[in-house]
Write a structure and sequence with these properties.
By secondary structure, the chain is α/β, with parallel strands linked by helices. Helix content is 45%, strand content 13%. The strands form five sheets. A five-stranded parallel sheet has the order 2-1-3-4-5, with helices on both faces. A five-stranded parallel sheet has the order 7-8-11-6-12. Helix 13 (315-325) packs across helix 15 (348-362) and helix 14 (334-342) packs parallel to helix 16. The longest helix is centred in the C-terminal third of the chain and has 20 residues, at 411-430. The protein is globular. The relative contact order is 0.07.
């Protein structure tokens, strides 16, 4: 391996020693310094094939130094380290032209891999700096750090992104950050909830329609693609899009053009597509409910937003943020935070926000206690009643185990019965009471179905007894 000199700037002597030793073991020649001035002198002298620098240095902020380094040596890659593990730091690192951002603490193997990539990567021009403003993404946990780093990279591209995650995790907030800090930030951001659109109007909503195209079309209608021209079109709940509309959307992604409903003229689609779903698109493809070719067109860059149960260390920051957002000058007991961290949160961040809002309004004291939180958890329904069947079951069970309570025996059989009875009734209703068709739909033989109908008191001809 060709030897490279790596410049390391950090005011912590122990970190300089550890990084220097790791780089030396990997075959590099480290040069370390404790200040921005020392780093600048090394760079000005032509030293180093790569810079690894902390953001907070005793004499100057690393972000203020990076533009000067880039002007003097535009081909020198810079890796930024920081203990300020927020989305702002990740975005700022990308905006200032850093090759990569590493949140502290980080794995030394990850550092070496990053150094290898930076040295091997071709020089890529970076966009001009954007104004940094407060963002709606909160959290310093490792799963959120992965999101921040991915977002920071994607703001510098125009690639199609599919954001996956459970309901309430903040997928639209991530999409807005991609737009607000992306190449199209000066153009519109248009959000569309596909699941909320009537199926017979979804093509008109997306692509527009001409006058007289259908009953009630008394004038030309502008579609969302046209509204989002030169900007970003966010297609939320893309997994609920009907197959007919999927075909038209595929053509837009393939050809970059479309026609309005009832129209003949080709219209150019100059938008960045960001899609989001709480469903497993690959499973929908296997079930024939989602086009495979559209799936690959949309899933150019997959980005997963973690559920709250995977980032419970962020709950304290989120609670303080929501209290401040609601204008409530209140504090919360450490024990109350600990209780919140033990919950499963099937409704994710949205559910937590709703709970904190209620706590801020309904409890008059300056300090929210663990008792306040326990009572609210026991009394309140989940903050999110949407999502998959699995999420709905999780919400139901969360109420059974709320605040550490143990439900009575027989929970397994009771939950199965509560699921099975409406399932059988709905299948019979969908098949007009035809037990053979219902059994086929359920994957059961007819005798098994008849036995279950008797157990649950369901009369095929008359519905639920």
């Amino acid at each position: 391996m060709e030897s490279h000199t790596i410049l390391v700037a950090d005011d912590d002597a122990s970190i300089r020693t550890v990084l220097g030793q790791a780089l030396a073991r990997a075959g590099y020649e480290p040069r370390t310094t404790a200040s921005a001035a020392g780093l600048w002198n090394l760079v000005a002298e032509g030293e180093g094939a790569l810079v690894v620098t902390d953001v907070v240095l005793p004499d100057e902020n690393g972000f203020d130094l990076i533009p000067r380094i880039r002007r003097l040596r535009p081909g020198l890659p810079i890796v930024v380290m920081s203990a300020q593990n927020t989305i702002l730091t990740a975005i700022a690192a990308a905006e200032h032209g850093a090759f990569e951002y590493l949140p502290k603490p980080f794995d030394l193997k990850e550092l070496i891999t990053t150094v290898e990539r930076a040295l091997a990567a071709p020089r890529v021009p970076h966009a001009s700096e954007a104004d940094i403003e407060k963002l709606p993404l909160i959290g310093r946990s490792p799963p959120m750090q992965e999101v921040y780093r991915a977002v920071a990279r994607l703001t510098k591209s125009d690639l199609t992104v599919t954001i996956t995650g459970e309901s309430g995790t903040g997928k639209e907030l991530v999409a807005r950050v991609l737009h607000d800090y992306g190449l199209r930030r000066r153009a519109p951001f248009v959000a569309v909830n596909v699941a909320a659109m009537p199926k017979d109007l979804i093509e008109s909503e997306l692509f527009g329609h001409e006058r007289g195209a259908f009953t009630g079309a008394v004038q030309r209608g502008v579609g969302r693609f046209e509204q989002a021209d030169s900007g970003t079109l966010f297609l939320d709940e893309i997994g609920d899009m009907p197959l007919e509309a999927q075909t038209r959307l595929l053509r837009v992604l393939q050809e970059g053009e479309y026609t309005s409903v009832g129209g003949r003229a080709l219209l150019r689609a100059n938008v960045r597509i960001i899609a989001a779903t709480n469903r497993d698109l690959s499973r929908l493809v296997r079930e024939g409910l989602f086009r495979e070719d559209l799936y690959y067109r949309l899933n150019v860059v997959p980005l997963r937003v973690p559920p709250l149960r995977e980032r419970t260390s962020d709950i304290a920051d989120l609670v303080r943020h929501f209290l401040a957002k609601g204008g409530e000058a209140k504090s919360i007991e450490i024990e109350a935070i600990a209780l919140l961290e033990k919950q499963r949160w099937p409704g994710n961040v949205r559910e937590l926000e709703n709970l904190v809002r209620r706590l801020g309004i309904l409890h008059s004291g300056d300090m929210i206690s663990v008792g306040d939180v326990s009572r609210e958890l026991a009394a309140a329904p989940s903050g999110d009643e949407s999502g998959s069947l699995e999420e709905a079951v999780a919400r139901h069970l969360a109420r059974a185990f709320v605040a550490g309570a143990v439900p009575p025996p027989g929970l397994y059989a009771r939950v199965l019965a509560e699921m099975e009875r409406p399932l059988l009734a709905h299948c019979l209703e969908a098949t007009g009471g035809n037990q053979i068709r219902a059994a086929g739909l359920l994957g059961l033989n007819r005798n098994t179905l008849r036995k279950k109908l008797r157990e649950h008191g369901i009369e095929p001809a008359r519905g639920v007894k």
